[in-house]
Structures are given as structure tokens and as C-alpha cells.
Amino acid sequence: MGTATNHHLVIDIGNTVAKAAVFLDKVMIGPVIRFSDQEWEEVDRLVTNHGVKKIIYSTVANVPPAKWIDKWESGQCLVLALGPDLVLPFSSVYTTMETLGQDRIAVVAGSMAIPTTSAPCGTPQTSALPARLIVDAGTCVTFDLIDGSATYLGGNISPGMRMRLQAMHTFTARLPDTPPADPSGRVGWSTASALRHGGQLGVVYETEGLFLRLQKQYPDLELLLTGGDANFLAGKLSVPFSLHPNLVLSGLNQILSNYVQNES
Prior knowledge:
This protein is of the alpha/beta class. The chain contains seven helices and eleven strands. The two termini are 21 Å apart.
């Protein structure tokens, strides 16, 4: 059992939901909590209950209220904001790291802690990992590629499922506002089902297409899924994949651990 100072708090502030979790070394302990802008007291309880002394947060929306950062720092907590100035556990050829989304940085870091899924059972894990395509299916869908030498090569950003459906309604005169549902069959048999096939299964086909194209260059390529719509993708994909619902949080812990190790 580690000491209290080994407990890390990681906070992921997304477009639609904020999440937090406590890690002891590399293991998440307890459940992930989801909270609103008015529920930061729930996060503070994690700090108090676990004796947390090291905190990292990433945000694609608002930053944590100064009230709580001031409280944690006055209690001798290290509070890090994920940004391009932090030393990351991977190298990168991306030309605009200052604008690379923090969620994308986190999922790439998180992927590095996942053992390979392609090695036969019982094969010892080597230090080198295969190339990975990491798909974070949320408000937008991000596709990020890291090679076996731990070099981030870049990726794509695409509209998420709900954004696609909403856009087709908003930017046309007559297409209806259609909520997501589980589309069946290969093509739509009504306007609503055609919209769902295009908006929802379009993400599936885009994922499969990019994976198969990249696999020609990286034969050992692995596909990792995360994000709010990852379960939908998992039920529809026809290519191999592994599902990692807390990859952003795991990645934040990786980055925080890397920072602490480099500073010690």
C-alpha cells in the first residue's frame, strides 16, 4: 500500500461533462466521478479523503475555479495544468503542439500504458509497443496515431455522431432533427434512418477505412477506442479493437507521474 503522497487526482473537463478519479501509482482506485460546474465540492472531497498531494487537470472548456486551486495549493498540493510546456512521455512531429487538444495529448499518453493486444497469449511483453490508432468518440471524433518508437505522428478531427445529425438538420431546409438511435441494415429505408446511417454509421465506416489504410503502412497497428460513443462503435466495427473507457484519465496520470519522476 502506498503512502498518501502517492495518490494522484486527475481531472478531465470536457465539452459536455467533467470527470475526476484518484490513482494510486498506475491503478485507478474507486469510481470515476462525473460532476458539473456547481459540484467542485465533490472533487475536493477526493483530495481530502485520499490525502492527495498531486493533481493534474486538462480542459477543452473551462478551467477549475480559482477558489479550489488556491485551497489545494495552500494545502501543499502540486496542481498542474496540462499544456504543451509539460514534458510528455512521447515525442512528436506535430507542428502545432500549442494547439493540440489536451484530450488528444492525454489519450496518446494513456495508450502507452496499455500492453499490446496482438501478442499471442503467454508472449513476454517487450519494451516496444506496436503502432496505435486511438479513436476518442465524443462531441468530436479524434483519430490519433502513435508509432512503435513512441512518436506521435498526428491525426484527424471529425464531427461526432450527434454533431453530424444536428448539422444536417441545421444547415438544410427540410431534413428533420433526428436523435441518435441504433440503425439496422446496410442502408436507410426512411429519411430518419438514412440520416442515422450517415451520421452514426458514417463514423464507423470512417474509423474502419482509416484503420485499414494505415494498417498497410503499419502492419501491427492496433485500434484503441475511448469516449462517450465508444460502445456504439464497438458494437458495429468489423476490424479488431480494444475498448478503454478511461483512457483520458489514465493518460493524465501517466503525464503527472512522468512529471513527478523528472522533477524528483
